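Anyone else keep sequences and structure tokens together like this?

Example one:
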Amino acid sequence: MIMNKIESRKDEHVRIALEKDVSSKYNYWDDMSLSHNALPEINKSSVDLTTEFLGKELKSPFLISGMTGGYSKAKKINENLAAAAETYQLAMGVGSQRAGLKTERLKDTYNVVKEYDIPLRVGNIGASQLVLWGHEETLSFVTKMVDMIDADAVAICLNFLQEVIQFEGEAHAKGVMDGIQHLADNIDIPVIVKESGAGISFDVAKRLMDTSIAAIDLGGLGGTSFAAIEHYRAKLHFDRLHARGGKTFWNWGIPTPQSLIEVRDAVDENFPVIASGGIRHGLDAAKALALGANMVGVAHALLKPATKSEKETLFEIDAFVKELRAAMFLTGCDHVDSLKFVEVNGWI
């Protein structure tokens, strides 16, 4: 079967992410450490990872971030991720659902997640679409996206770095704030505003607090660079100009720890914040939670296991959970909420 343009692009994104080094040049979580507690006075078995997020009970504060969907191989990837989310009772997102809206046969690459008992499913659409669709169509399409996966929340992805580098990109940002506000006011599930690798600043977080959104996923610099992915895509298509742009902006953005500090300072004390961007293991997750995140989003570390098998995906999630539990024990934290009182060295 011949792929359409969106399918081909999604296939290239995943292949490049698996085959090339598309990480930013530096992972800023390495600049941080947590103070060791030599007398934790708790038992490892008593460490409690459970948390509540957007009204849902989760066994660990992890979100399997939306990665893919919209081309044939994505179904198996999302199926393996969904199996892990069910087993460990984690939140899970899917990639941009525009392909499922446009092409009926691609819906099952997303709605496979409906077959699993996932406590929090998150839909996904790029912010530019809110402008291109307008208010009425946005509500209609997002309603279809929600039905597609039985979503409990929907993420609006601020992926403008990728859009401005991508040779087919749709860098339409004028009117996005109004679109976010209108959607959040008129849909009956929580709206999350999500960055995808370039971070959210204090000023942007402050502006978002004037809307009715339910959470921010700050998606900072330190993990996958979508400018790097588009650099390699442009090279595949012999587009020297956009390949150069991807290289130039490879390391553009706000480092994830810095973005987390800025967002946490900008929002209300109890406002939910997801930290994502360069989370490689459970220790990085513990650092993010200690800096004030309520949840931690993980993507690239799970992509390769999810392309291999359910077993490999389960192993990777199990490792994340065990590493977070170990970090909590070694800092004397018997519950996730206690991490925010741990001394953080670096970045503060």
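And example two:
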Amino acid sequence: MNSNHSQASGEPPSAAGTAYPEPVRRLIDELARLPGIGKRSAERMAFHILKARREEAMRLSSAIADVKQQVRQCSICHNLGDADPCAICRDPRRDASTILVVEQPKDVISLEQTGMFRGVYHVLAGHLDPLSGVEVADLTVADLLARVDDPSRNSRGEQVREAILGMNPDLEGDSTALYLADELSRRKVKVTRLARGLPAGSQLEYASAAVLAEAIQGRRPLDDPGE
């Protein structure tokens, strides 16, 4: 009865009572490596793939292969794209004199969804965190400063006039912003930050489009303490 109930409900059989074929075990092991996926969730996903039509499973396999083979890092801004330079850096409608500096590619996606920013981006690939061993050399800070110093290194060869610091509003993000503000100010670039409508300690990817839009519009000089 338990066996019939398990089959009817679509649940995978218990690992304790089944010796999985080697390909299934490997699939479960790899799925379990994904963030937030435990062993039981990996088993359910593996059995879903097994029950799916072959063409559906192959589409998933092809999508994973395409991500690894076709998606690359833009040599200018370090955002992800399927070409180099990326679509944003190539777009003549974007104001390449204004760079919004963020920590991760997912932050670019969140900000683009607001439709409010028409400049270009620079992705740091993280934030300064000495306690975890993340130093300046581990980020793309050198390439950001090179874009400011040498217009030929910037999108479409334009001179950078403003850098907007869009780090997450937490301790590490603030420390990174202060470091960058010091370096950029020496280069006579206008330095602003996203407005503090963003909740302290949160991350850009979790902010709503309305909050991010207000943060872009209300940006202020970094030395302005705000309210």
